[in-house]
Structure formats: structure tokens, C-alpha cells
Amino acid sequence: ALLAAALFVFAAGAASLYTISKNPSLEASSTSTELSTHEGASRRNDDDRRSLSIALAHGGCQVTYARESEVPIDPTWQASFPGSGARMTFNLIQALTGIHTNDDYNSHERGYERVVAVKTHYPVKNARHHFADLDQLFTRAIVILRNPLNAVPSYFNLQYEQLHHLPNHSTRGPNRDWLLYRDDPHDGLAAQLPNYENFVSYWMEKYPDRQQLLMISYEDLTDDFAGPIVAARIANFLGEVEGVNPIAAESVPCVWETVVNYKNVAEKVDVAAVEAAMSAAAEAEADEAGVEEVDSVRRRKKKKVNKRRALKGKTFADPSSLRTGPKKRPYTKQNLADMLAVFQRLVDRYNNDKDFVRIMGLYIEMVTNTVSAED
Prior knowledge:
Layout: H1 2-19, H2 32-35, H3 39-50, E1 54-55, E2 61-62, E3 76-80, H4 86-97, E4 102-103, E5 117-120, H5 131-135, E6 141-145, H6 148-163, H7 175-182, H8 189-206, E7 213-217, H9 218-221, H10 226-239, H11 252-259, H12 262-268, H13 271-289, H14 295-310, H15 333-349, H16 354-368
Parallel strand pairs: 3-5, 3-6, 4-5, 6-7
Antiparallel strand pairs: 1-2
Helix pairs in contact: 1-10, 1-16, 4-10, 4-11, 8-15, 10-11, 13-14, 15-16
């Protein structure tokens, strides 16, 4: 009953979240001139969108490379507890905005003035101990929650990969190693559940003005129904920043399919349709440049199609987790009780936030329905 009620609450606001936007950059490009008071600004927005991810016919999708912003912009924190889809969200944000992201380690050496979002796991991790200095650049955040029932095992997998010098997002550690990790008093569940509670509390209290905070859940983002709606909310939130022009709303579901729902998208891509669209785009590009011979342009674009075919329909935009190994992790009754206690404390603390309470309610139901290894 709780799950049904929560889904009803989410669905009730879904249509308005997805189709109604105060930000004109999320509307269809065909209406952008009506929404802008300056024809020149509207034309620039349309040009920007043509360089971003676009939907193709027959369910195909072309996701273009992100770039550095041409003008300085105010970045947004992309905060998550480890194991909560940070890499996936990182790629989705780039695909939605066409602008590079970065992390708090500055791993990509892009700095922070011309990126749209910066990934962080603070306060669980304090990258190079300079979060406080970096934080002065930020006034808003996107926070991705995930049920620790699944986030902690995902974090364990990452640590297992690093310990055994395996590629990231390639392997799920065996259950015998999981049990040792789970029961470790310093690094296991006894440590990670307090870390999770502190993480949630920190970001909930850092931005009490919800105009500055977009709180979403991994479960919603990866859901077939809710996922494209959440992606549109992310695009809308980022589009409120001056200098950020997200893709048109009708392109969002296709980008979500490519970046988030990548395990299913390969079967849906019609390569012939993609080739036809690329060929048409090549001719249009040549026409705009005043070039009579389009073969060289067509060949350049066809290389991208052939690469996509070799990847079985996937694109560079979806280097997300392809882990193999056991998915189900055993928990004791006490482990599950400890999780429920964390959720209840958080609900009691932030019971004025209806969507947060909805998310915690779903987590409570998931854990309540989990059978312990002792049963």
C-alpha cells in the first residue's frame, strides 16, 4: 500500500514536471522565438541545441560530445553517497546540457568555472581536504539518493575492483568477500550506515531553500516510467543557471534511454534509420557550408554510425556499469533493522519534505520486504 501510494504521489506531479517548465530552454525549439524577447538570443539557443543530443526517428538517438562552456558559469554540486550512480548521472548531465562536468578531485583538469556540475561524495569523502574552499563557488546542488541496501554493496564492488586492480564497473565481488566487508566494524555496514545518515543530513540542511536543491533518487532515475521525468527535472534545474541551455524537452527521453537505460537501448536502435539520418545531416551540413560535394562529410559521419554498430547500438555517452557477478547480497536481521532505524530517524527529522518522505517510505518498504540470510 505504501509503495502504491508513493507511486501515485509521484505520478500525480509527473506530467507537470515533464511538460511544463518555467525555463524556455526546455521547450521545443520551434517555440523558442515566442519565448524569447530577443530574436538573436533565440537563434543562439537553437544553434546550441543543434550541437546537443538529439532524438532520431525509429527510437534512435545521437548523443554528441560535451564541451567546455564558452562563458563562465556557476557550477552545481552533483552529490551522492558512494555507490549511488554518480558516474551514470555525470554522463547524463553532460548529455542533457552539452557541457563538461568535473569532480572535486579535478580529475579531468577542467577546473570549475566552465563546467556545469561537479561530482562529490562529501562528507563521506573530502577530496584532497579542500571541500570547504571549493564550496565557496557553489550555491546549489543536485543530490542523488539510493537505498543503502544496494548502494553499500555497489560501493563494496568498487573497493573490490580497486583492491584487485580490476577496471572500474567491471566486477561484483564474490559473496564470501562481501560477508567479510559487511561485518568489518571499521569499513563495513557498521561504518557505512552512519556515513549514509550523515551524508543525507548534511545536504538536507545545507540547502533548506529547495529552490537551491534538487533531491532525486537513483530508483526513480532508473525506472522506466519515472526516469525520463527525473531527467527532465535535472535539465530544468540546471537550465536555471545563466549560460546553461539544456536540450529541448522532446529529446530528453531518448537521451535517458541511451545513457541510463543503456542495457535495453541496443535492441531498440535501428541502425539503418541512424545511417539515413546521418546521411541527411551530412547533406544539410554541406549545404549550409556551400559545399557541392558531400561525400567527405558523409564519410566522416558514417564513421560514427559504424562505431555505434560495433558497440551494438551504444554510444560513448554510456560507459556506465557493466559489472558481472552476484547481484544479491545477504543481510542479517540486525543489518536490516539498523537500516530501518536510519530511515525512520531521517523521516522524523525532515518530515516537512514530502518528496523526501516518499523516497524514505519506498526504502522502508524495500528493506521490510527483504528476507534476511537467517530466514
